[in-house]
Amino acid sequence: MGYLGADYTVKSWLLTTDHKRIGLLYMISITVFFLLGGAAATLLRLELMTPRGDVFGSPDDYNRSFTIHGVFMVFFFLIPGVPAVLGNFLLPLMIGARDLAFPRLNLMSWYIYMIGGLFTLYALVAGGVDTGWTFYTPYSTMFSNTQVIAAALGIFIVGFSSILTALNFIVTVHTMRAPGMTWLRLPLFIWAHYATSLIIVLGTPVLAITIILVAVERLFKVGIFDPAYGGDPLLFQHLFWFYSHPAVYIMILPSFGVISEIVTAFARKKIFGYSFMAGALLAIAVLGFLVWGHHMFVSSQSMYAGMIFSVLSFLVAVPSGIKVFNWTATLYKGSVSFKTPMLYALGFIGLFTIGGLTGLVLSTMATDVHVHDTYFVVAHFHYIMVGGMVMAYLGGLHFWWPKITGRMYSEFWGALSALTVFIGFNLTFFPQFLLGYIGMPRRYYEYPEEYQVLNVMSTAGASVLAVGYMMPLIYLLISLKVGKIAGPNPWAASGLEWETSSPPPTHNFLDTKIVTSGPYDYELQEFADQQREVQEQGIV
Amino acid sequence: MSSPSATAHDNTYGQDDTYLYHHFEDLQQQHESSSLGMWAFLSTEVLFFGGVLGAFAVVQTLYGPAMKAASEHLDPILGAYNTAVLLVSSLAMALAVRASQLRQHRNTVLFLVATIVLGSVFLGVKAYEWIHDYHLELVPGINFNQDRYPGRQILFWSFYFTLTGIHALHMVIGIVIIAIMAVLVQRRWFTGGGATQIEMLGLYWHFVDIVWVFLYPILYLINR
Ligand code: HEM
Ligand SMILES: [Cu+2]
């Protein structure tokens, strides 16, 4: 019968403590915030189609629009996206547990997320915020006349929700693994979520306190950051980036987990260098805390500090490189099948690589001085965050959709959406590298004529991208009604989540799972048989 | 569903009638989960305070003399008195944990109430200090007197009120939860005496104490 059909009332959903249902609650809310953030982005791109300001009434409205875009996308979509939806749904299944360690806390995290969302929405309707998603002081504490406090509270609250989810994940991985599921038999998806949870638990409270200090300063004029009262605005930047650089890894590490699962499943090969892959995740988590100063090269930080941050930033490229090389090595001589999830995963690898390499350009102090606060930076982080996280999220969604809903979607439309997103994405953001390189600053709503061609390309790409993003919304919903029944393991993939029915029963497994080998045994005979069987049934 | 089922199980934590939630194998696992969860939560708390303390350390290094001048308006004796009160409250809390493990419900409630009383005394003294500061016109944003306390001294007070304020907020939250817990134990709401819950609450309370043990020397003493 499955967890979906266990009860149909609204109450049974709103009071559920089943991690799978909570994952779906998150999926719905996160989609809503993605659409809101996307609407703001559409306005921004329309404005930038011409060199004159014509869509927005004033530069202030433009500022409000990119702030709300950034805030919704970063704090309400990119950061919680993969962990809260896919992590929530899959983490207990993958380790053979009946639920997360604290099911009620899990439900509470969703409510906290929603309350944080309401605060931020309130900030939006009550006049918006114009500080940018980074809330730099002293502008945010002293000069901005907008709803900074409401938005900051929203972010504080939603941060608390991520902390609770992360705590739940850490404890679950430690205490609830099925017998035989040793640490070195954990799927990489689990390792990725574990490493992410560590960053969330150690990083988010620093953002929380920073935001409280901003709010306190605005309310009471206490002057911790404001030079007019003796404070130091750079202190804000240090505290902010101490969280927010690791935060970019909060967005990307879970995606690494998703991609690893997809790549092995569709290459039908054991992942290359499993322990290096797990180690790289932990290394990135640790190094992520040591590089925040690369956002402050031009902020009058001392040159020596800049040099150290520059070198440390280069170091992050090492574990990131390990990930990319090992995925490639896994694909090498695999029997690769290019199903929708795999197409998304390949897109991810390509886009992430470009994003990561341009990160090195930015980590080099001399080149960063040239492109800092230009569209080059905008392109860089969109390649990684949108090209990375969103591709992985969609890839994962397609990969586990049969497990979540028990239905297959249309492979044709799936493949088409993956292709459309990839093309639209590159058309949108590649021109921005060029724009930044020739000098267009970020956060401007008017610009000299000579930047127009590239901006028009970017806007055109954005509309292709939008179409690409809307497609899954439609055919996935359609699949709920007409999709072919998936069966427990439509991809013949390895992993405990595929050993239970689709959709899984409320308590995940009917019997206790006992694990006797490591993950990804695709080369074993039993898997070859299973795969043949599935193909004969004509599902794949 | 996570509705508790009172299965009989052997365990070291609060005898055979503690709840076991459906998704755990045994009480051992359930107890380990709770304590790991609490420790992980406390590590986020460490970083929460760590953020402000780090900022304060920066300011302290940059503007040492102003910080020194400012901190002279604090009364280290009162602070020491409060430190002692809080440490005794921690002792009471530890005794409550012990009592709950032995399922001595009456003693548990008694020690929880003692913790609440001592915690409230601490907050009372703190409030008294704040009011005193207010009269000296030391509260930034409300009545700070920049002429009497020139230069960067205001920064010290900004940090002082933020740090002690957040600490006091943690204490208030703690006291409310302890009060709820005391009522529940009094009414025999937990079949097992709530040993695990009170143990976790104890960890939280000790943490709040330890934060103060750091705040006291940092704010009151190092500049003397
Ligand atoms: C792994 C995922 C990554 C994500 C999600 C990411 C995200 C971001 C974001 C959001 C910004 C812009 C912040 C702002 O609004 O000002 C940024 C800037 C930057 N990133 Fe990344 N990044 C990632 C990886 C890297 C890597 C691997 C490096 C270096 C090896 C790097 C180096 C930089 C630098 C130096 C800047 C500052 C540029 C400037 O403001 O001048 N990033 N990144
Ligand atoms: Cu960074």
Written account of the structure:
- The complex is a heterodimer of chains A (540) and B (224).
- Chain A is 68% helix and 0% strand.
- Chain A has 540 residues and is mainly alpha-helical.
- In chain A, helix 2 packs antiparallel against helix 16, helix 4 (81-95) runs parallel beside helix 7 and helix 5 (103-125) runs antiparallel to helix 7 (148-175).
- Chain B is mainly α and 224 residues long.
- Chain B has 6 helices and no strands.
- Chain B has helices at 27-62, 64-71, 76-101, 105-135, 153-186, 195-221.
- Chain B starts with 26 loop residues before the first helix and ends with a helix.
- Residues 1-17 of chain B have low confidence and may be disordered.
- Chain A binds chain B through residues 17, 97-104, 163, 167-168, 170-172, 174-176, 201-206, 208-210, 212-213, 216-217, 219-224, 229-232, 235, 239, 242, 506-507, and chain B through 1-2, 21-24, 29, 32-33, 36-37, 40-41, 43-45, 47-52, 54-55, 58-59, 62-63, 140-142, 151-152, 154-155, 157-159, 161-162, 166.
- Copper (II) ion is lined by residues 245, 248, 291, 294-295 of chain A.
